[in-house]
Specification:
homodimer; sulfopyruvate decarboxylase activity (chains A, B); 10 helices; ComB-like_sf (chains A, B); 11 strands; globular; Probable 2-phosphosulfolactate phosphatase (chains A, B); alpha/beta; five-stranded parallel β-sheet
Chain lengths: 240, 240
C-alpha cells in the first residue's frame, strides 16, 4: 500500500488521486468542524466553494455556515467554529458549509475513489477506515491560502504513522519523502499537540481572533469516532 | 529576518528569491560534493545543467564531473561521489559539474541576491554566513526529480534551527510553516542523522548502488568549514 502526503491543494494533481482513497485534512478548522457536526447529529454537510453557492444551495431548515478570513459570513447561521455545531440546533439538520481552504480541498479531491475527512479529532478511526478500503492512499493537506500549513502537516504525520502501525505486517507499506518527514515532525510533538498548534501561525491567528478554545479543541486526538465520507456531493458519516 | 524553506526546485518562484540570500541544499550529493571539492583545494566549481554544456565548458586541465541516475557520465573524469574530490588530483583544478538535481537548483536560484551551497557538512558555517549577510533567506531544497527529498528537508531543518539560534536576540525572526515542520523533524532525528539518511529513499538508492559510504559521509555535521558562494557562474569558497 502506497501512502503519499500532498503538501497543499495546489500540488494535488488528478493523477495522484485517481483510484485512491483521499484523506482531506484541514485541522483549523473545516474538517474538525465537519467531524464535530456529524458527531452531533447533523444529517450531512454540503461543502461548497463560494458564498454565492452556499446561498443558492441552502433550503429551508438547512444551517448555513462558514468563514472568510476566519470570520463568520454576514447573514449565515454559523461560522466555522466547531463549538457552533454541537448544540441541539444542529441535530438532524443539513449544513451548507463554505470555508477558505477546506471545502476547496474536498472539491479538488473529487477525482478520488473515496474521499474521507480527517483531523486530530478522528485520526485513528480515519486511518483505520482508509486502511480497510485496501487502496493506495493520498493524504491531502488543505493548507492556508494555497500554502503548506503546519497543523495539517502534523496531523498528516499522525495519520501516516497510524496507517503504518496498521500495516506493520505488510511488506509493501510505502510513503513518499514528505510522509516520512511528517511522521518525524509528529513524533517530535507527540504528547504536546495543543501547545504545538497554539504556537503555529494558523493557531496564533485564530487565538488572536478569540478562538484559542477552538485550537485546543481541534488538537484533541481521537476524541470523536466519526469519519466523514463524500457521497453525492455531501459529507456523511462513514458507516462501518 | 524572514527564513522560508522551499520544498523543491519546482516551487521556487523568482519573487521568493529576489533580494534574498538563497541556500541551495542537495545533500545527496551535489552540494556535499561541491563543499568537499572546494575544501580540498579545487579552484572553483562550474555547475552546468546538461552533459553537453559540461563538455563544451570544459577546458584543458579542468575536471569534468557529475552523474545521471546516480552514476558517472561516460567520458567524464569523475562521478558525483565526494570521495572522488578529495585527492591531490583536485587541488588547484576547476571542476565542471553536472548533476540531475543540484546544479539545476543552483541555476534556478540565479535571481537571488546571493547563492550559497549548504549541506550537513557545513551547516553551522553556512547558517552563520547567511545570517551575517542580514537579508531575508530562502532555503531551497533541490529534491529528487522535482520531488521533495527527505535528506534535503532534514538539513534545511538543521539550518533553520541554527539561523534561529543565531537570531535568538532578534524580535523578528520568522519562518514559514514548512520551516517550522522541518525544524521539528530535524529535532526528532538529532544525534542519529546517518541512520536517518541511510533509511530514507535517496540514501537507500545510493546504498544499493554501492555508495553507502557516501551517505554516511554526507550525514556528517559541521565536518567542513567551507561555504561555497555563486560568483560569475562559479561556486567559490566564501571569503569570511
Amino acid at each position: 500500500m502506497q501512502v503519499d502526503v500532498i503538501a497543499s491543494v495546489n500540488e494535488a494533481r488528478a493523477i495522484e488521486l485517481a483510484n485512491r482513497t483521499v484523506i482531506v485534512i484541514d485541522v483549523l478548522r473545516a474538517t474538525s468542524t465537519i467531524i464535530t457536526a456529524l458527531a452531533h447529529g447533523a444529517s450531512g454537510i454540503l461543502p461548497v466553494e463560494t458564498v454565492q453557492q452556499a446561498k443558492q444551495a441552502a433550503r429551508d431548515g438547512d444551517i448555513t455556515g462558514g468563514e472568510r478570513n476566519c470570520k463568520k459570513i454576514p447573514g449565515f447561521d454559523a461560522g466555522n467554529s466547531p463549538f457552533e455545531y454541537m448544540g441541539e440546533s444542529v441535530y438532524g439538520k443539513r449544513v451548507v458549509l463554505t470555508t477558505s481552504n477546506g471545502t476547496r480541498a474536498i472539491h479538488k479531491a473529487s477525482k478520488a475513489d473515496v474521499i474521507l475527512a480527517g483531523a486530530f479529532l478522528n485520526a485513528s478511526e480515519c486511518a483505520r477506515t482508509a486502511y480497510q478500503l485496501r487502496k493506495d492512499i493520498a493524504v491531502l493537506c488543505a493548507g492556508t491560502q494555497d500554502e503548506f500549513a503546519f497543523e495539517d502537516a502534523l496531523c498528516a504525520g499522525l495519520i501516516v504513522a497510524e496507517l503504518f502501525r496498521l500495516g506493520r505486517q505488510e511488506q509493501e507499506m510505502r510513503t513518499n519523502d514528505l510522509g516520512s518527514i511528517l511522521v518525524s515532525a509528529y513524533r517530535h510533538h507527540e504528547g504536546a499537540i495543543p501547545e504545538a498548534l497554539l504556537a503555529c501561525s494558523g493557531g496564533m491567528r485564530l487565538a488572536k481572533l478569540g478562538y484559542a478554545n477552538d485550537v485546543e479543541y481541534c488538537a484533541g486526538i481521537d476524541t470523536v469516532s466519526v469519519v466523514p465520507v463524500w457521497v453525492q456531493q455531501m459529507m456523511l458519516p462513514f458507516a462501518t
